[in-house]
């Protein structure tokens, strides 16, 4: 989806047959129709992207200035401000805060991060369901363990967890690395 959205930005050039674009400005995204984004595969997210771009455009001083101002605020205030945008909840707000707004201790808690937390930081909560209250406890546990860069530490653990899951799926779906010969008998294919 990032590549599709970047396609609306200014073309930077081509390398090895791949075209590269600058990420689109808020103004450019505000001109994209919801239907265009749906056709590009964004589904339900299309209306949120268009709506958010238009809201950001209307902010005093513009969206870029408003977003940049969030860099100097405390994390709870940043999360609250971002959650006023269409389709943005606490997890997405924490992602934006961590990856774009210098909030290095923001923890985007979802089921994957919950799994990491119960495996490494809070094993006593394994088997429980993730709630908003427990999301706060998870974030606090990561910050207590990893300090000011807890968000990045969480991200490394999260990516490691995803990689481990992909490896497990690959191992269970491909039990043999040797190619199998196929014999053809009538319309049936036997391996």
UniProtKB/TrEMBL annotation:
It is found in: Nucleus. Its EC number is 4.2.99.18. GO terms for biological process: base-excision repair, AP site formation. The keyword Transcription regulation does not apply. It catalyses: 2'-deoxyribonucleotide-(2'-deoxyribose 5'-phosphate)-2'-deoxyribonucleotide-DNA = a 3'-end 2'-deoxyribonucleotide-(2,3-dehydro-2,3-deoxyribose 5'-phosphate)-DNA + a 5'-end 5'-phospho-2'-deoxyribonucleoside-DNA + H(+). The keyword DNA damage applies. GO terms for molecular function: 8-oxo-7,8-dihydroguanine DNA N-glycosylase activity; class I DNA-(apurinic or apyrimidinic site) endonuclease activity. One of its GO terms (cellular component) is nucleus. Residues 172-191 are annotated as: Disordered. Keywords: DNA damage, DNA repair, Glycosidase, Hydrolase, Lyase, Multifunctional enzyme, Nucleus. Its main location: nucleus. Residues 4-162 form the HhH-GPD domain. InterPro entries: DNA_glycosylase (IPR011257), HhH-GPD_domain (IPR003265), HhH_base_excis_C (IPR023170), Oxidative_DNA_repair_enzyme (IPR052054). Belongs to the type-1 OGG1 family. This is DNA-(apurinic or apyrimidinic site) lyase. It comes from Oryza sativa subsp. indica (Rice).
